[in-house]
Amino acid sequence: MRFPVIRQLLDFKKMLRILFICEANRLRSPTAETIFSGYPDVEARSAGIGKEATVPVSAELLDWADLIFVMEKRHRNIIHSRFKEIYLRKRIICLYIPDEFEFMDPELVSLLEEKVTPYLDRSSQ
Predict the structure, then answer these.
(1) Residue 38, domain extent
(2) What pTM does this model have?
(3) How many other β-carbons are positioned within 10 Å of the β-carbon of residue 28?
(4) How many Cα neighbours within 13 Å face the side chain of 103?
(5) Contact 68/76 with Cβ under 8 angstroms?
(6) 4 falls within a domain
(7) What are 72-123's pLDDT values in tens digits?
(8) In the chain, how many domains are there?
């Protein structure tokens, strides 16, 4: 092609930005961030909804995300009450994964891959 910069723009693929949220941002959501950061065309971050969270959820993080996964329904409800405007315009998916796993627990990794991977197919979005 004669104009390589234009070709690069045409080939540009936007990264899918995913935010994983759990209670303390110490076990489940950092595990998810670690797993899915390695996927092609995916940028993953994690945060916690609790007061003692390592990385507290914020309006900026929620706005940044294209897709938000919460581990429990309660987390989605808290986002709704704290960030109602953002909640109404974002896709928030509950994974229903209880707080009973350690960081990178093989069972947690399998559950996350099973529940999240179907949402990574761009043709379904």
Answers:
(1) 14-120
(2) 0.87
(3) 31
(4) 8
(5) no
(6) no
(7) 999 999 999 999 999 999 999 999 999 999 999 999 999 999 999 999 875 4
(8) 1
